[in-house]
Please model this.
Amino acid sequence: MKDDKKIIKKGVSRRGFLKGAGLTTAGTIVLQTGVLAKTKENSVQSKTVGPGPVNVEMNVNGKTRSLTIEPRSTLAQALRDEIQLTGTKMVCDRGACSACTVWVDDIPVNACMTFAMDVGDRKVVTIEGLAENGKLHPIQEAFIDHDATQCGYCTPGMIMSTAHLLKENPNPTLEDVKHATRGNYCRCGTYPHVFKATLAAAKKIK
Model:
């Protein structure tokens, strides 16, 4: 109560304090789900489109793709249905499992929670884009070697999350790997294999 009184004396009500705390929490959740905010310098004035399909261009795995999509289409739907890149899985379709994780300008995002129209000219990388010249990414090979795939539904998202970790931190600890995959849900419970595979891939990259 004493703390509350001090807050009130300084001109901040209890309701205002709780409201501010709630907004902070909401902002943190938005950032963690991978929603990309544009700065004033590079933002473009929005215009109304739809409700019918519209033509858009998207940079996916280094190639420019021309799509015809409805404005309501998510990035996951556009990748799977329009470009036929079905490696990106749609499981929960509500941002809870991260099976649909892809990179947008090197930032892991949930494709099911990102509107395709909002991607703009940002670069999208999917699980299919990790391999180079027909050679699997070290983390992909490690997942095979350490039997970290199981049923496979969570695998693309797991790989995209762990590959991003290795890109940012080539010498991760077990705790780093756990933190990087904290949003990826595996129904088979194969987390120990995922952790081993990621640490093994890190050694191989060195």
